[in-house]
Write a structure and sequence with these properties.
The chain has 112 residues and is mainly α. Helix content is 46%, strand content 0%. The chain has six helices and no strands. α4 packs across α5.
Length: 112
């Protein structure tokens, strides 16, 4: 039987918080035994290659319980284009990203 010391295992977590809560979050993380990672010159896309814009699109669409056809209607796009974007075979440009941002009430940059 293999024994793993769970206390020594660590994972990196990245999330957004309001600026005025940053120090509170840092204190909470420190109390839980975590530490602030050193700044990296590596892009988040290199660290999370499976998180391409299409995955974000699919996740938000599922979160809001929308079909591809419903999203296509809301954005004036073809359903097949939505599918291609979700699968990574069609890029999401800035104009389309802004349409998605309006529908999902988020920043358009998450789709780029």
């Amino acid at each position: 039987m293999l024994h793993t010391d769970k206390k020594s295992e660590k994972v990196a977590v990245c999330f957004q918080v309001p600026v005025d809560k940053l120090e509170d979050i840092k204190r909470i993380v420190a109390c839980l035994g975590g530490n602030e990672a050193a700044a990296s010159s590596e892009s988040w896309r290199d660290s999370f290659p499976e998180r391409h814009p299409g995955v974000v699109l699919r996740g938000l669409r599922n979160r809001d319980d929308l079909t591809q056809a419903e999203l296509a209607k809301k954005t004036g796009m073809l359903q097949s284009h939505i599918s291609e974007m979700e699968n990574g075979s069609r890029s999401i440009g800035k104009t389309i990203a802004k349409k998605f941002a309006q529908v999902f009430k988020t920043d358009y940059k998450v789709f780029l």
